[in-house]
Design a protein that fits this description.
27% of the residues lie in helices and 30% in strands. The two termini are 22 Å apart.
Length: 155
């Protein structure tokens, strides 16, 4: 259920910043490349909550949304969504997108904790290896230098 809500949050955010017009003008679209989700507390049916969404930054290849679901000032779920702009020719790099947004391209502004998550196995495409299944990879999630509360404090 959370993932569907996050989709709706990104659509709502896109409409607030007039993303549709920007995409249409440049003949681009968006594609989700990967997500990292952390669940802390469950929501019960019909409980009210706030969904906060923002573009947190970009690196040399990708853009990143940060989204979190809160209820009573408590974070129930947070997600980092890695995405790209695409054209008929493939992926459009941030170095081409950011200037068209009116910004100055600087991929070094991405928060360090996002860089750590992007290095994680979950964000990498599984490369086919003979006799191995992607579900058998050991994943160590203890690589993050900040807590979820620290990372989301400025949202």
């Amino acid at each position: 259920r959370y993932v569907t809500l996050l989709d709706l949050g990104r659509f709502g955010y896109g409409s607030k910043i007039n993303m549709g017009k920007f995409l249409k003008t440049n003949k681009w679209s968006l594609t989700i490349v990967g997500t990292y989700n952390e669940y802390r507390h469950r929501l019960r049916l019909f409980q009210k909550f706030k969904l906060k969404t923002k573009i947190i930054g970009y690196d040399k290849n990708w853009f990143y949304f940060f989204q979190k679901i809160e209820r009573n000032n408590k974070t129930h779920m947070a997600s980092v969504v890695k995405f790209a702009f695409t054209s008929k020719n493939g992926i459009v790099k941030p170095s081409d997108v950011v200037p068209k947004m009116g910004g100055e391209y600087d991929p070094d502004l991405l928060p360090e904790w996002i860089e750590e998550i992007s290095k994680h196995q979950l964000f990498k495409k599984w490369q086919k290896k003979r006799g191995q299944c992607p579900l058998l990879y050991k994943i160590d999630l203890k690589i993050y230098a900040v807590s979820l509360e620290e990372a989301t404090a400025k949202l």
